[in-house]
């Protein structure tokens, strides 16, 4: 069982309410921020006070005026009137994490910091938005039937988003420029190519971003196309997290928790359960296309009823599982996560 660290956050999450800011550890606060309607109820931002009175914002959250107000109020409460935002650290490129970075940088001059691969990923997504070629290639490779191709292509096309240029690009094992505090970067690709977690050993904290969440299994491959298989990278990244089981998990959504190794295992087994389902479908019909395999998997609403944009996501997910199997990684994944990975049941 994973254990919530804050009962208030846990209850607020369950009720879909925005919890209040809480001090997490000496000099670190958790600030829940709103997300645009129709998404998850809120994101969790973290404020870190440094030895010189500056406040570093980890994941500045969705671009909303209410969130700017919340951050400003919090920074004043933590470090006093006239306190400044010293840096904006972003775990990954999604708008519920990166959203306010540009606006706060322009206003306060604080440097924006994220992983090198996340810079590249944003550029790739921006290029794709104006080039239908790669999507056509995917559709061909997935074996989408002629009659569905145009429609699938429309939903698969990336929408253009402004690229945020980092002031500081970090790599795995770098230490963030925060005076008096050691926050070390762990590159955890999978959810997006340049996703990072942050370790604060002295504070007993692991900032998990959307790599490990307490209430949902994070989606994989959500940062545009990559050369590597995001699912493989993601599972390897989950395995690496088991070394930090004695730390408190500070996720990007949900609530702070203990039980990092157990949660990593739960999430990995969920993904692997799907891999085994795909492996079975391939055994039954070795020549089946990604489209055909996807159509034979269990989906909570049934394949026929999946909305078109969900079909695109279903095809992408299936292709990642097919690749994991084709690359021969299934057996060692099974050794790593348990020989008895259960067959997945579709969620309600
Ligand atoms: Zn998120």
From TrEMBL:
Domain of life: Bacteria
InterPro entries, sorted: Metallo-B-lactamas, NDM-1-like, RibonucZ/Hydroxyglut_hydro
Protein name, per record: MBL fold metallo-hydrolase
Lineage, opening ranks: Bacteria, Bacillati, Actinomycetota, Actinomycetes, Micrococcales
Domain Metallo-beta-lactamase: 42-253
Annotated organism of origin: Microbacterium gallinarum
